[in-house]
């Protein structure tokens, strides 16, 4: 028998939510938010002192990181370590940490030391002792094994697949059953733990099992926490489930396989084997610089011997149906007052602890007093529920009989029987049963007795005249509509012309200047004409000069400011401007120069003549094809 | 030479300009539809027509079919028509047993109201009673597809759709000048609109041809000859109510084509045109 489990192929950690993959930015922000809690956290009363090493298997010449962690404070000075046999000791520095879990703020300070192995052997380090402010703190003892060669070459890998070979010390999978000896069908809690340190994992899937002879329950969790093993702090992902043996015998549980993605720091960025990487392993910077390399994780545990023993034969009740556990039973029925033949709902709830899959339905048996129906069974997390419909057949029935449920309790190693009932009921006389009647429609009303002959004729006339149109007048003959067909076309042609012109005005400065030259000249002439009327000679000639400059500049796409009388020779004549027009231009420039130096010599007649010449010049040049 | 002396108008300004240009066009289009659609009758004329129609209906109910036909024709002689008038006329002729005329008027009614189920039912009934097959769609695959797709659309509706699609095409052409997003889809959009417009145009053209040249055999039997001569060889015979297309008229003879494409000559008095 095999229970249905959760889909194990679906990653239970969709993103890298473990140390190497945590969202560094968010973590940094969280740290900033908690900064104000530093002082409060530092005042924590319970201070613990723990010593850990980054690895307890190293080779001579390699360096291991020793961390002295004070939990509950951040004001603990560094310890002056005594000389340690087999190691050279160097203090590296402190590291502080604040964390908030479920609203509880904890702080810690870690003093990091580097231990360089000097000789081969097994060494016990510690306990370390610190006296501070009248209190004495004592750490645990650490065991470190120093070998002549690096340990990665000696140990068999715990991680297979394409994982880097040097991470096998840092990640492993263990299977821990609550006990190794159990009865058949006895539910045994099982814990599968993935330990990892210095590496990260993500997209971890539920473990898979070699479970010959066992049935595995559903997984709960997983939970995440930290655990110290051999003086090394590991991150742990704990999958909890249960199993029970199907047949007596000696079996091996496992091996468990766990798949996921392993995150290992890229070799190029590692700080050698000195163990410094833990000190500087900030997830924020790791994520930021993408220092982690992904590879497939295929962790495998060792298999565990488990003995399944049969249930004892002595004391086995007749009612026993194989249930194993420590159960309790609750039964009820209703309504308690019914007519004979009416249904009564009988409910039984089996709770407690144990293997609910072995709990068979607890039923009211069929008898001459009751008609019973098959029960509905529901299995929840906390028990198993049965609901059965029973019908009292006679009015002399006064109770629903008692029920018994027996099971084997592995804790006491005895069979136990639970009894509920009998349940008093009151059965009233039932009504006269109706005799069976055959209901059928009268023969004449049978719709398919004979093929119906339906009449046929034209449908009735229309009572309203509806929409009235001129005879033979259709929309397509409408002249206005035919004309209207041209309007959008004209609109498009006009719009297109407007668009092209606008585009050219934006992109072709020469065109734009030429196009706007007459209008500008017209405005300038109006100003000059006003000065002429007011007899303002100097202003008039200034306006005329400016107008001519501006116009010629726009017309021939020249810089207006630099236009002088030389334009006649340089531009107008080469471009085929009529000679009289060129002469007029030259005259106007000369008049303007004269007005600038001897304005008194020019009168209204001169101004009128200049104005007229200017108008003729503009007119002539406008007629000229560019 | 590039320059930016002149500030380009903003999108909002462009849209405003377009709306200003589009509003008169749409108003004009709406006016066209209105003028091309139902006629605005003078109140007296409208009352007179409606009263004639009701009187004709009453005569029909009294089984005075000839009088009812005369009354309906009075309305037609005043230059007005409606699908209901043709339908009721068809009913009158059907009651009289003149199935050819009945079908003719049902076809006339169908030109005004192609989706009317009553017209179709009566038309089918007459055709069935005459032993005529349902009028088959003719032409190539494309023509049959277009006929089927636009079967429920009348001439006016098709014209309106055609005009609206045409406006849309012009609108897209204008929009693509000013709204860059439209340029991204102008290929697909333009192709779709042009296909719809072409389909509508094609369907409209077929309906116009049918309206102008469609005819119904109103006599019990009409012999179609190879030549417009009394002693010409008979090519085939058309039964009452058969639908044909008139190709030519000449000296009391008509050249016609039936649905299967066969062409011949028959007496002009044997048929009545739908238009």
CA radius of gyration of chain A: 51 Å
Helix/strand class of chain A: alpha+beta
The order of strands across the largest sheet of chain B is 7-6-5-2-8
Number of strands of chain B: 8
Given the structure, what is the number of helices of chain B? Answer: 9
In which range does the helix fraction of chain B lie?
Answer: 55-70%
Most extensive chain-chain interface: A-B, 43 and 69 residues
Helix and strand sequence of chain B? HHHEHHHHHHEEEEEEE
Query: Strand share of the residues of chain A?
Result: 25-35%
Structural class of chain B: alpha+beta
The main pleated sheet of chain A reads as: 5 strands, antiparallel
Shape of chain B: globular
Oligomer: heterodimer
Can you count the helices of chain A? 10
User: Main beta sheet of chain B: strand number and arrangement?
Assistant: 5 strands, antiparallel
Low-confidence stretches of chain A: 1-26, 28-44, 151-166, 268-289
What is the residue-averaged pLDDT of chain B?
83
Separation of termini of chain A? Answer: 100 Å
Work out the number of β strands of chain A: 34
Describe this structure in words.
- The complex is a heterodimer of chains A (626) and B (275).
- Chain A is an alpha+beta fold.
- Chain A has 10 helices and 34 strands.
- Chain A is flat and about 145 Å long.
- The relative contact order of chain A is 0.08.
- Chain B has 275 residues and is an alpha+beta fold.
- Chain B has a 5-stranded antiparallel beta sheet with strand order 7-6-5-2-8. Chain B has a two-stranded antiparallel sheet with strand order 3-4.
- The longest helix of chain B has 34 residues, at 180-213.
- At the A-B interface, strand 34, helix 5 and helix 6 of A face helix 1, helix 2, strand 1, helix 4 and helix 6 of B.
- Strand 34 (469-470) of chain A pairs antiparallel with strand 1 (80-81) of chain B, so a sheet runs across the interface.
